[in-house]
Amino acid sequence: MLLVQAGIYMLEHLDLRQPCEDGNYEGVIAVSPLKVTGATGSPINPVFIS
């Protein structure tokens, strides 16, 4: 709960093989979690920008 209150999000099971195929290993992952009151998890659609 402390992570959520601090605005820290944990992402698991991301498949980053495709963005790394061209040898680029740097970029930004942008996510927009749903704001659900009292919840500690939310579905997301991450976007990788290289």
Descriptive overview:
- With 50 residues, this protein is of the alpha+beta class.
- The protein has one domain (1-50).
- It has 2 helices and 2 strands.
- It has a two-stranded antiparallel ribbon.
- The chain is elongated.
- The N and C termini lie far apart (31 Å).
- The mean pLDDT is 84.
Secondary-structure blueprint:
Blueprint: H1 2-5, H2 17-20, E1 28-30, E2 47-49
Antiparallel strand pairs: 1-2
Number of helical regions? 2
Reading the helices and strands in chain order gives HHEE
What is the overall pLDDT average? 84
Straight-line distance between termini? 31 Å
Task: Please provide the count of β strands.
Answer: 2
Radius of gyration from CA coordinates: 13 Å
**For the report, how would you describe the main beta sheet?**
2 strands, antiparallel
Low-confidence residue ranges: none
Bulk shape? elongated
Strand percentage lies at 5-15%
